Amino acid sequence: MAHAIEAPASTTAEGPTSHTQNQTLRLSAYQLRMLHGAITPNRVRMLRGMAHLEAWDVRRQLIRIFGFGGYSTETLSLDLTSERETKQGERSRWTVVYRAQVRLTILDTAGREITHWDDAAAGDSVNQPSLGDAHDMAMKTALSQALKRCATNLGDQFGLSLYNNGSKDAVVKYSAAHPPEEWWKQDAPQPPEPDDPPVQPEPQPAATTEDAEPTRAQQPAPQHARRAEAPPKVTLAEFKDKVTRVWNNLDGTRQNLLEAEKAGLADEVVPVGDEGTPTRLRELLENRIAELEAEKRGQRRAA
Question: Distance between CA 116 and CA 177 in Å, rounded?
Fold first, then answer.
């Protein structure tokens, strides 16, 4: 659970009151205007049927509202909780889990702390060919998730409304500490706030050369023979049909991920879910592999 710590009222009042008339506003009218607004739908992604924000977008919004030096993050702890190796023939696949605890501190324009929150999260990286990449991705995921949980204490601009069944409508709307007359008449700046395109996920590392299928050591075949042996190029539509056919098969989905990498289709974007959320094929298959592995573990425990 997030933990907020604030300085005494005499140093943190964010608007003039009867006993703080000589204090500078800690949050500007425009900052309050932005914080009270509903989240822009283009900032929300759907992943496995759940609405969520990308960590890079949360950082972008922190910079937009509080400034480049207007917030700070601190890693309070980062612990490895699990590292598992799975053999696939002669090759290894790695699944790694980390737990992170992070502090998000919000500053005013003079660099004074307004408040901070601590929160924690676990992050994993599933079925990776590189142990280094598996650790890196799991650490990054845990840290990003913990930061996003801290930021929800800032309200709708940081995904609080998404906990209300994925709603993008504002749920805060009003704060007695910041009555509307402080901010609601504030005009938008010139130029206006940017109209951002839909957010995209961060790029994921591709399979390493060590993970590529081994090739036979032989003399190059004649050109006409190489043309005859070359497999036909698979279109994205054909590959999507193949993915659908083995969607509930763990080994088949793993094989599809390898073939997508080899065919150069892993970074292709496909629509996912009822809303057609743009998702890279690699991410879609990796997430499905994780789901099927979790189901398999559950079946073993039940047996």
Answer: 17
Partners of residue 46 on adjacent β-strands = 51
CA angle 251, 256, 257 (to 5 degrees): 100
Pick the closest to residue 76 from 104, 47, 57 (CA basis). 104
223-236 burial, b if ≥16 CB within 10 A, otherwise e? Answer: eeeeeeeeeeeeee
User: Cα–Cα distance between 298 and 303 in angstroms, integer?
Assistant: 9
Which amino acid is located at 91 in the chain?
A: R
What pLDDT digit, counting tens, does each position of 68-118 carry?
A: 999 999 999 999 999 999 998 889 999 999 999 999 999 998 899 999 999
Bridge partners for 71 per DSSP: 106
Nearest alpha carbon to residue 98 among 67, 125, 129: 125
* Start-to-end Cα distance in the chain: 34
Which pTM value belongs to this model? 0.61
Token representation of residue 210: 């060590």
Q: At what angle do helices 55-66 and 131-151 cross, to 10 degrees?
A: 40
Phi and psi at residue 176, in whole multiples of 5°?
-65, -25
Residue with tokens 């990286």: 125
Structure tokens at 27: 């949050």
- How far is 112 from 103, CA to CA, in rounded Å? 16
Tens of pLDDT, residues 228-277: 444 456 677 788 888 888 888 888 888 888 888 878 888 887 787 766 77
**DSSP H or E stretch at residue 135:** helix 131-151
Which whole-number Å values give the CA distances from 257 to 93, 213, 261, 280, in the listed order? 13, 13, 6, 12
